[in-house]
ATP-binding cassette domain-containing protein (Ornithinibacillus caprae), 241 residues
Amino acid sequence: MIEIKDVSKDFAGKKRAIDSLNLTIPDGKIVGFLGPNGAGKSTTIKMMTGILPIDDGSITLNGHDIEKQPLQAKKIFGYVPDQPDMFLRLRGIEYLNFIGDIFDIPVDIRKEQIETLTETFNIHDALGDYIQTYSHGMRQKIIVTGVLLHDPDIWILDEPLTGLDPKSAYMLKEMMREHANKGNTVFFSSHGLEVVEQLCDEVAIIHNGKLLFYGTLDEMRKTYQSDQSLEHVFLELTNDE
């Protein structure tokens, strides 16, 4: 479970990025995090993962405060950033072993997981190459593989399907569903409204740093008295006019 309580974030010289955000993401659900560019999605996710400090409020992951108990919190989530351009001077296998070392994954289990996941994402043959030589899609796959390697309870994914080929995107969506069905938490941001509509149990919509809606798609349609698609309701909600 992810609990965001009265969280605010300011950046010098700019309007408030996140304004008193309250959001509880339960176990056993896939929750889509939606909003226009600049709405505060990535800022929220970076505070959830400890990358950015929280100005006001608190965020806990399975009961661990991300600022007061950062090591405990970071052991139980996996994070896929919106830009996978990291550890470019490492070879693919070096990066995955680095992740395995951080999370104390036994060598035999690690080896089996690496083989299974990289075969699934069709990057096994590139593990000996430097990540800087990878395409954007391959970099996304190696980062996703690293996240799945230690099987964290909570998945926090910022645009995880961007750059993935159709087969890999399908496999990742299946993994997300399976992970949630085991009673775990999957929280991901996306601009692909059709994917969110097909995959998510609940959606959270943020705009100008404020939460506009959180609930199921059926609840959204009842709340806004609309039988239209998620795309239609989303555009209506985030229209500034």
